[in-house]
Amino acid sequence: MPVRTPTLEQIKSIGSDFGLVFTDDETSAFQTAFKGSLASYARLEELVEPVLAPISPRSPGYRPSAGENPFGGWYWKTDIHTEATGLLSGKKVAIKDNIAVAGVPMMNGSALLEGYIPEFDASVVTRILAAGGTIAGKAACEDLCFCGASHTCAGGTIRNPHNPAHSAGGSSGGSAALIAAGEVPMALGGDQGGSIRTPSSWCGVYGLKPTWGLVPTTGSMPISYSIDHCGPMGASVDDVARLLTVIAGHDGWDTRTISARTGDYMGALSTPAKGLRIGILREGFGHPESDPQVDAKVRAAIESLVKAGIEAEEVSVPWHLDGPHVWTGIILEGATEMMLKGYGFGNNVQGYYPVSMQEAFARGMGTRINDVSPTVKMVLMLGEYMHRHYHGRYHSKAQNPRVFLRQAYDAALEKYDALAMPTIPFTATPIPPADAPLETLLVLALNMQANTCPFDVSGHPAFTIPCGRVNDLPVGLMFVGRHFEETTLIQLASAVEAGGDWKTN
């Protein structure tokens, strides 16, 4: 469909929005000048675009009934596989619903995308199929992934298998719930503020946020370019290592992955952790919202590692307490501009642009914006307020000092092989009733990220491991390592896993 030349009235209207005033002759001159650029758009319509072609035939699957989906973890069920054999042979994998699977509905937890069916596979999906894995379906997630709990998904609440009255965590809540319920051994999640680690911690599964730029996000819906992560979640450390091995590395599209350094993640499973040094992050404990029982469980798990020959001592990184403030400044305007106003993808990023997804998102923004969750509305309004009235000042003031945050962690990691702290300062919160006050819905969606979001800003890899229970709900221990040294985190996670059944601790 060719781009129409703007009318004289449209040119005047656009100019007026920016405070520009044109004479009739100037308006006509601009209209004539525009025609040269519009000729390029006409040629773009003629050019053939590359496509992320699916490597296997498939049926579209189906949306499971409530009886088949007791915790709300599934959005869609499928059975997609190839004849390939590899590291994931015999493994079923759930794909978070912000990641495209060709021919399968994709909603990203939001009314804005309801009815959209991508025609392409994300790079990570192609890699899973090529490694012999089976795509078991799309895991439900929070509305556009803007929630750390699990009550905003447009398809319905996602419930914690350990206690269905409690949150599964978000935004990758469906992925964690399906693993915890034993329906799949592994799943993909996304993490921009803790969205792999929060649900993994609250549901008692293993979740790794890789180093920023290790795993390609090609074919996934982003939130904010500089903090987007895709990573593995699993029922065991082995499951996480297998899935990471398959999905890590540059894919030819995502420029963030050009500098990726992959490791021998499977080999790390059998490499002894004895002799490694852990820095127990002082600022990771004792938050105002921390549950002392959670802090105690994490310290007990670390003490068990010490008895097994791993060194540990307390370390202070004061910048950790400012990490959430830096994160807020980056993500609010970043998400508003890139995702919400940028029709799900934004611009000026070198990579694959999913045109059909952008068009579907634009239609949703134009017709169903009132159907989105309170968290999406809050991000849109506050991000736009900051943009209009402060002109990017605070986004810039957040982006600039992130180097200090990264350097502060790097300095600690010169002495220690990993930092340790509770993943989330408290266990899974109760799911709020549908008629809960708006303030309650917003607080419960965003109150758990003190220890997770700083590492989305700094880009360090972070691995949450179940280490015990408080009031029959799981507790997560998080290890944070040097950039691209996921192997060290896998060694430590394996040592924790070998120390005994966390459900009895």
Keywords:
2 domains, globular, 505 residues, Amidase signature (AS) enzymes, alpha/beta
Explain how this protein is built.
- The chain has helices at residues 8-17, 24-46, 123-130, 173-180, 197-203, 237-247, 265-268, 292-307, 323-340, 355-367, 374-390, 393-399, 402-415, 438-446, 453-458, 486-498; strands at 74-80, 92-96, 134-139, 159-160, 163-167, 186-190, 206-209, 230-234, 277-281, 311-315, 418-422, 462-470, 473-481.
- The protein is 36% helix and 14% strand.
- It has 16 helices and 13 strands.
- The radius of gyration is 23 Å and the shape is globular.
- The mean pLDDT is 96.
- The protein is α/β, with parallel strands linked by helices and 505 residues long.
- The protein has two domains: 8-46, no CATH class; 66-504, Amidase signature (AS) domain (Amidase signature (AS) enzymes, Alpha-Beta Complex), CATH 3.90.1300.10.
- The longest helix has 23 residues, at 24-46.
How are the elements arranged and paired?
Layout lengths: L7 H10 L6 H23 L27 E7 L11 E5 L26 H8 L3 E6 L19 E2 L2 E5 L5 H8 L5 E5 L6 H7 L2 E4 L20 E5 L2 H11 L17 H4 L8 E5 L10 H16 L3 E5 L7 H18 L14 H13 L6 H17 L2 H7 L2 H14 L2 E5 L15 H9 L6 H6 L3 E9 L2 E9 L4 H13 L7
Parallel strand pairs: 2-3, 2-6, 9-10, 9-11
Antiparallel strand pairs: 1-3, 4-5, 6-8, 7-8, 7-12, 11-13, 12-13
Helix pairs in contact: 4-5, 9-11, 9-12
Q: How would the global form be characterised? A: globular
% residues in beta strands = 5-15%
Which structural class is indicated by helix and strand composition?
A: alpha/beta
Q: What's the architecture of the largest domain, going by CATH?
A: Alpha-Beta Complex
Query: Class of the largest domain in CATH?
Result: Alpha Beta
